[in-house]
Write a structure and sequence with these properties.
globular; DNA-binding; 0% strand; mainly alpha; homodimer
Chain lengths: 75, 75
Amino acid sequence: MKEKDNIQKKFGKHLKKLRLERGITGAELARRSFIDKPHITRLEKGETNPTLYTLIKLSQALEISLQELFQEFKL
Amino acid sequence: MKEKDNIQKKFGKHLKKLRLERGITGAELARRSFIDKPHITRLEKGETNPTLYTLIKLSQALEISLQELFQEFKL
DNA sequence: TATATAGTTACCATATATGGTAACTATATT
DNA sequence: AATATAGTTACCATATATGGTAACTATATA
């Protein structure tokens, strides 16, 4: 579905931006979030539609709230 | 997983609260969000771990942003 | 009683999220 | 050249999110 794909791609770019702002590697984000490294790549490339639990693990790894995770995320 | 279950249950209660504040039925939320009615029940009962796409459909049906969806949602 | 509405539950089928491993590319460094 | 690191890709297996249907309970109301 095109709409869902767009959302995933935008979220992926957003996630990568947040990671790079913190100067950490994908492997480090994987380690902190307890999500495996290939899956971090898939998330950042917008190839998957993360669940709430995954979003929370990412926000915790980035040391921000769930609300802050979507601060600059516009559809 | 207990942590994941807790998150789902909290989100379910939060979602139901938001729906009731708007005075709409589960069927109406289902209609507006394009999510089927049994699945709305599962979401509100915390029996499922919604994806980002589902969260966005819910926020749009509730006429709030994704950020606002998590405004009062504390882990 | 009967009807209508809201919510729930039990199924099933399909799509996909996630984890895991391995190998690959590219880059930088020794 | 050799090593190390970062990111990616190709697999596979498993768990589960979602949709769909039907039937059920409960409540309110005509």
